[in-house]
Write a structure and sequence with these properties.
This protein is an alpha+beta fold. It contains 17 helices and 7 strands. The chain has 2 domains: 306 residues, Beta Polymerase, domain 2; 58 residues, no CATH class. The N terminus and C terminus are likely disordered.
Length: 385
């Protein structure tokens, strides 16, 4: 008997095709028979419960009533989970503003509003803030003073070590807050021009409150990089892209292109757009069609992503595939090699050693590729691997 999880069994199945059809931006609900429980499990694993429930409320379909009834508890739980997260977001916005620390909310509730018009419409488990690296020590201090417990110790912050993110959780609360800086966003191929991002920043209204946010064009680049960081292993990230394209016709695609060029994410943006078109039928914007078509590698990359996407991370790309994907994301030979090398050798908190010795940083860099190789080595004896 196969040890694959339920989601893996739906690869190229009626449930996967039904999920794509129901969540498409040119709706074409499947008339094929599918298992309702499997479809709901697949939607939940891909973070698509909210979108599926919304689409079903607009389109009649076979199994429609049964499917909506099955979805309802999951959708209700998702809505209830966002309430404390949004409350915690408001609290941290006020704390940072009182300390005169400039910060914007990225992804999470802001993205949900931009993409779907509702902060509870998509799944997220934390609230992410972007601020300057120069402000991280002070931001950590004011959050700790307000009762938040840090995941990254103060001595590591003062030593200017570079974690994947600075995580905080308020004592007695479950909501997770993550602080990011231009230094932690390591998957941007070039350093994030954070001052320019802040100069173009705006606000998004959530529950009647203006929440500081990136310009929509800069956020689009950020979610494209984020999807590439995670190998586009969840349909929800592709749905974000498709929804932004569909819901925001006023988006300035020339500015998106310039922002992508500034951080070396041109191909990441093209792949994001092509995925949204191929899977959820959100047409590539007219001003980007030539860019996407001229970059012929994008179609090959998208086909590769489609081979692992339905499994929702339960069958991740093998180590060599991961390395090749990182390399290809930069679009040029030398740039790709530099990008892959940097990601392979720049340590995060998982690579840190408990030492202040001068050689500690070198040890951390050298141990990282071995840790990654161990983590992502695939056992070819597992059925279906």
């Amino acid at each position: 008997m196969s040890s694959r999880p339920l989601v893996a069994s739906t690869f190229s199945s009626p449930e996967w095709q039904a999920l794509l059809g129901f969540c498409s931006f040119q709706p074409a609900p499947s008339n094929r028979t599918f298992d309702v429980a499997k479809l709901v499990a697949l939607a939940e694993t891909h973070g698509m419960t909210g979108q599926l429930a919304t689409k079903l409320s607009r389109h009649g379909a076979a199994h429609g009533e049964l499917l909506q009834n099955t979805l309802r508890p999951t959708k209700r739980a998702q809505v209830l989970a966002t309430i404390p997260l949004i409350a915690e977001m408001f609290r941290v916005v006020d704390i940072l503003a009182a300390a005169k620390i400039e910060a914007v909310v990225v992804k999470g509730p802001v993205l949900a509003v931009r993409a779907f018009g509702d902060p509870s419409a998509r799944q997220y488990g934390d609230v992410d803030f972007l601020l300057r690296s120069a402000d991280i020590a002070r931001a950590s201090a004011v959050l700790i003073a307000a009762g938040f417990e840090p995941h990254i110790p103060a001595d590591a912050i003062h030593a200017q070590k570079r974690p994947g993110q600075y995580m905080f959780r308020r004592t007695g609360a479950n909501s997770l807050i993550e602080l990011h800086t231009e230094r932690t966003l390591r998957y941007f191929p070039r350093p994030l021009p954070i001052n320019h991002f802040f100069q173009r920043s705006t606000t998004v209204s959530i529950d009647g409150r203006p929440i500081p946010a990136l310009a929509a064009e800069d956020e689009f680049v950020l979610i494209s990089v984020h999807g590439a960081k995670h190998f586009w292993e969840r349909l929800m990230w592709i749905a974000d892209v498709a929804a932004i394209v569909h819901r925001n016709p006023e988006l300035d695609w020339r500015r998106v292109r310039r922002s992508a060029v500034n951080v070396g994410a041109e191909r990441m943006v093209r792949v994001a757009l092509l995925l949204a078109e191929r899977l959820l039928l959100a047409p590539v914007p007219r001003l980007m069609i030539r860019d996407v078509e001229a970059d012929t590698a994008c179609a090959k990359i998208v086909r590769k992503i489609e081979s692992w996407l339905p499994y929702a991370g339960s069958e991740p790309p093998a180590l060599v595939e991961r390395a090749l994907f990182r390399f290809q994301m930069r679009g040029q030979l030398l740039a790709g090699a530099r990008y892959l090398t940097r990601l392979s050798l720049t340590p995060t908190e998982e690579d840190w050693v408990d030492s202040d010795a001068p050689a500690a940083a070198l040890r951390e860099s050298l141990r990282r590729p071995f840790r990654l190789a161990k983590k992502y080595r695939r056992n070819r004896n597992v059925p279906g691997s």
